[in-house]
Amino acid sequence: MRFLSYGLLVAAGLLPKRVEASHPGEKDRPTPFVFAQIKYRGGDWNPHPLAVIPLMEELMQRTSVESAASRHEVNLMDLDLFSYPFLYMAGKYDFDPFTQEEIEILRRFLSYGGFLLADDALGQPGYGFDRSLSRELKRLFPEKELRRLPTGHAALRSYYLLRRIGGMRIVHPYLEGISVGSATPVIYCHNDLGGAWERDQLGNWLNPCTPGGEEQRRDAFHLGINLILYAMTENYKEDLIHVPFIRRRLSR
Amino acid sequence: MKDLFFVGALPWWFILLIALGALALLIHQFLAFRQRLSPRQSWLLISLRGFVYALMLFFLLSPGLVEKRVTRLRRPLTVILDSSQSMGFPASSNQSRDGRPGQSRLDLAKEKLLEGKEPLMQKLAQNYDLRLYQFNTRLEALGPASLRQLAAQGKGTRLIEALKEAGRDGGAQAGIILFSDGIANGENRSMNESISFPVPIFAVGVGETQGYTDLRIADLSAPEFAFRGRELKIDLTVQAYGLAGKTVPLHFNRGRNLVSSRNLTIDRDPFEQRLTLSYTPKEIGPHSFTLSIPAQAGELITQNNQREFKVEVQRDKIRVLTLSGSPSWNYRFLRMALKQDPLIDLVSFVFLRTPTDSVDVPDSQLSLIPFPIDEIFLEELKNFDLIFFDDFSYRSYFNVLYLEKVRDFVRAGGGLAMLGGIRSFDSGGYAETPLREVLPVELDGKGNFSTGSALRGVLTASGKTHPITRLVPDLRANEEAWKKIPPLTSLNRVLRTKGEALLQAAPDGASAGPPLLTVGKFGKGRTLALLSDDFWRWNFVAVGEKESPQNHLKLIRQAVRWLAQEPSFEQVQITSITGSKTPGEKMDFKVRVVKDDFTPASHATVRLRVIGPEGEQIPIGDAPETEEGQYSAEFTPTREGPYRLEAEAHLADKLLGRDRKNFTAAFPFGELEDGRARPDFLQRIADASHGEFIPISEWNEKSLERVTEKLERFAPSQVEERRQIPLWNSLWIFTLLLLLLGSEWWMRRKWGLV
């Protein structure tokens, strides 16, 4: 039945377009956005191996961003880390502390324009991934704390006007982040976004979203898109030219 | 004549005590004489002795004689006449019988000095050593014979300065008699406590304040520079004399276009009103303004009814418009560079969604705003300094005709930068648009966009010195800096470069390749093509390599300034206009010219011309080169007013650029700005010097007597010489004393007392 559905979609031309990763020497293909995921030691860096492809498909279908279909896995010590200004870090369990060199590199990454989306797949504040991440963020920015992002934050308006925070489960109805100047280079979601995005190759969602069901999943995709666009446009939506339009729409 | 006087060195009680002692001694001696001599003899002896005592007491008082001798002197007296232009105005509002203006102020003063039965000059010359001066901007001695020919032609009135100089030069003077209308426009234009005069000044005021008719724009205060889009304020004062009850219009023009007009009701005499006008310039460049009030009947001076001034309007910020075809890291780091620059005002549009993208929510749940095509291209474009096409293709969003507006914008002086990507250059379909002729690269519709290969930016010969790619001042260090910049992975290939290539895209190890960064000029504007969409790597990947992101930021900032034609990035710059800027006096212009690669341009043809106050063109000709890339010329303005200097440089028949600067030539005094006589100022001068102010209409015999009396009090013409002769050391007195004592001794001996 799934194969049939897939075939019908292709025939109707409604299948979301897919873009393969670029190859050297390729011509007349856009430079894609690459979703890079941090591999770290200990814990589980990869709780949802199939989460990124659906998100990239959604990104391609809904926005003008061209992206590589699959994620790029990266270690903090990789030489090409800075070729991927958007980093995703997910996990369920406690992980090993970063080395001091890794901390220095990540701090430099985030201070000069890079972006980190952290996603807690366990959904237990104070335990597992959340505990380890909080420890590492404290090492990264000793003077700063994770703070709840206001509802008017540019990340929640970068494409969709978000009023809800989606995910596989709703642990917090808000995002947290660390701001440096006018930018927020670290955004942390407790709701397991990857779980909501994850789908098998036949198009079946692998994890149910509770309690909001498919609407909650849709919110998770919207949030994923917004965060990618926020990383690439920063506070563009706070430019004066956008403010009256956004206010008008939010007031409806 | 001699008078007796006493110095009185001893206190009076001491002398009185001695006198009483001497009297007691005399009485005692008299009684002693009476026992042995007859009364006549006793009296004779005691008289002689009493005379001696009296003489000695007299000497105790230190007596002397004062000899007085009176000498009559001819003291120097200075007469100064004001010969400035304002003294040529009529002395009175009364017209002559034929209806022409009456006698001038200077002629009236000359009449007082030279005419009549006994002219004042003659009278004064009898009693004083008369010195005659004229003054305007300088003090000059005047021969009596030249007085009749003296004309009111001085360009200014350095009144206070002239009086001080005359007071110093005359030595011991009786005083100064000044004939002036009281207008002072030298360094000191008002009296204050620090101004003093060594001799009394008798100020004879020439010119009436009553009946004087004038309307003037005074105290004009306008900024030399203003910013586009920001209101500029012009402060001025309108003064009116003898025009009470009238209503006059004040016109404010920019060039020939009326900016505003307002009526002023002159409700008192004298009338003065401070006004503030405003104007918001919408264009950059020199703006000429005029303030004017129509001339009124009876006005002596009409040229002060109008004031001209020029304001150089500059941009306060460089206004940059970016159109990005999609969110991208290029946009992210371009935005970072532009936002961090305080000189840049950024308006950006990022096309987050293409027409083929489908969304799963109503538009009301999207933050997208419609791109205001007409507003941007038909109305607002002129208010930007440059526009970035960042991986943006017009094809999905608007008609190609809008790009004609962009072409016109660049032709008129705007800047255009096209950044690479799948939607740019040939890949964006620009070969078939009006931008084909604008861009600094040749498009043929066959160019493509490729990704994947690592390409380094290699400086061309021009790129080594060009201000955009000059990341560090030292040439060698600059080349080293470029070698460290990370490679790019995408490139738009075009047919060839049309402008000037600054960077070539070369694979590792190669020294040349297709153009990567090219600049050019179109009309009055400038263009730039950066043929890659991932030069953000020059920032963030450099950071990953522990290099500074500054090279990327600097490149963008310098490109923006070059495209926006910031003065420091101009090839032709008027660097200085020096000199007094006074009509009739020479001024120097200096112009710096650099070649396209920003090295000094030798042997360039630098043409200068000056636009005069009436818009007349005054060619100066070709400026000679004084040192490498430096050219200079001289110019002498002939009259007052605002001028504009324009410079244009060519090298081998190629235009390098133009520059222009405003300057104003004016006499420093403004003699004809306000011709109203100032008796109050003359009064203050007279009071400060303990002299007297006398209106010329009140000058008569009595006032002359008063002046003479005051001069006599201050410096009398009779000098009394006094000589003191002490008496006590006189030989005659000593002889008399000896004679008296000797006679007394001889009598006593004769009468048997010794």
Would you mind describing this structure in some detail?
- The complex is a heterodimer of chains A (252) and B (754).
- Chain A is an alpha/beta fold and 252 residues long.
- Chain A has a single domain, classed as Rossmann fold, CATH 3.40.50.
- Helices cover 33% and strands 13% of the residues of chain A.
- In chain A, strands 3-2-4-5-8-7-6 form a seven-stranded mixed beta sheet.
- In chain A, helix 3 (100-111) links the parallel strand 4 (86-91) and strand 5.
- Chain B has five domains: 2-70 and 724-750, no CATH class; 75-211 and 682-705, 3-Layer(aba) Sandwich (Rossmann fold); 214-313, Immunoglobulin-like (Sandwich); 318-563, Rossmann fold; 569-665, Immunoglobulin-like (Sandwich).
- In chain B, strand 27 (572-579) and strand 28 form a beta hairpin.
- The longest helix of chain B has 25 residues, at 12-36.
- Classes of the chains: A alpha/beta (252), B alpha+beta (754).
- Chains A and B meet through strand 1, helix 3, helix 6 and helix 7 of A and helix 6, strand 17, strand 21 and helix 11 of B.
